[in-house]
Design goal:
The chain is an all-beta fold. The protein has one helix and 26 strands. The strands form seven sheets. It has a four-stranded antiparallel β-sheet with strand order 1-26-25-24, with no helix packed on it. The chain has a four-stranded antiparallel β-sheet with strand order 2-3-4-5, with no helix packed on it. A hairpin with a 5-residue loop joins β6 and β7. It starts with 14 loop residues before the first strand and ends in a 10-residue tail after the last strand. The structure holds magnesium ion. Magnesium ion binds next to β6 and β16.
Length: 295
């Protein structure tokens, strides 16, 4: 894999470390537990993998179809709930709502979430959890669209910030938060010719502007992705994690034997890439860390 020189150790491959899910999403590394948790969305449960023991088990069940998640500045978990149509917090196992309505109307089914350095919660709100019965509960688009929102916990203001993507899905900031990346997975059939790209926006005074296509994914869709400390984008696709430089050039692929939904950095020093791919979790060592990694 010479094209990923400097990012992945020579000869490293993605190796399966856990399996048993139906559709894996929402991976996040929990430093305090030394483990990875992720969503098995159709299984309506959250699974946990401990590298120290090699054991995979259930972290929580009957979770109302959680999807993407991240860590808040205080280390609590911020996650998306299809079933409850909200973004919620997990503080040591106690679940509390963060936001579930825009101007009195319910959200669709929040899919993925990031927390900015100022504590604002940014999340995507496509329709999958109200249109796909295995991933939530059937429902209506109450505000009539699928947007990206910014929620300010200090003021409790919820603002639409990206409104030009058919099905916004993954999202992440560049290391200095001057850029916001958002994927469009509206072309969810594997070889569709529309809606399988990542858009990028300049973030000016907290508002994404000047949206343009950053990368088109040829095989599959870019569901979830992460940005590393150098600004490279590590994105899901049909059969690989694809790594793009900040200028949009494709640095290389990490082949994965199952359809990839999302990734996250983790492990003791934050340099291992965990890959949520259909039934399983794969792991590959890297030479970098998440852009948002906080000491
Ligand atoms: Mg997603």
């Amino acid at each position: 894999m010479p094209e990923l020189d400097g990012l992945v150790p020579s000869g490293a491959h993605a190796q399966r470390v856990a399996t048993g899910a139906t559709w894996s999403e929402g991976p996040v590394w929990l430093p305090a537990r030394g483990s990875l948790i992720w969503s098995d969305i159709p299984g309506d449960r959250i699974l946990e993998y401990s590298p120290a023991t090699g054991v995979t088990g259930e972290y929580r069940t009957a979770v109302e179809f959680t999807n993407g998640r991240t860590l808040d500045l205080d280390g609590s978990i911020v996650q998306c709930s299809h079933g409850l149509r909200r973004v919620e917090r997990d503080t040591g196992g106690e679940i509390t709502p963060i936001v579930d309505r825009f101007e009195g109307r319910r959200l669709n089914s929040p899919n993925d979430v990031v927390v900015a350095a100022d504590g604002a919660v940014w999340f995507t709100d496509p329709s999958y959890g109200i249109t796909q019965p295995a991933e939530g509960h059937p429902g209506e688009l109450e505000y009539g669209a699928c947007w990206v929102f910014r929620y300010d916990p200090a003021t409790e203001e919820l603002a639409p910030v990206v409104t030009d993507i058919a099905q916004p899905n993954g999202l992440a900031f560049s290391p200095d938060e001057s850029l916001l990346y958002v994927s469009d997975t509206s072309g969810a059939s594997d070889l569709s010719d529309v809606g399988h790209h990542i858009r990028v926006y300049d973030v000016v005074a907290g508002v994404p502007v000047n949206g343009r296509v950053f990368a088109e994914i040829e095989r599959g869709v870019p569901d979830g992705f992460r940005v590393d400390e150098h600004g490279n984008i590590w994105t899901s696709s049909l059969d690989a994690v694809i790594v793009y430089a900040p200028d949009g050039s494709r640095l290389g692929d990490i082949p994965v034997p199952e359809k990839v939904a999302n990734v996250c950095f983790g492990g003791p020093d934050g340099t291992e890439l965990y890959i949520a791919a259909t039934t399983s979790i794969y792991r590959i060592p890297t030479l970098t860390r998440d852009a948002a990694a906080r000491p």
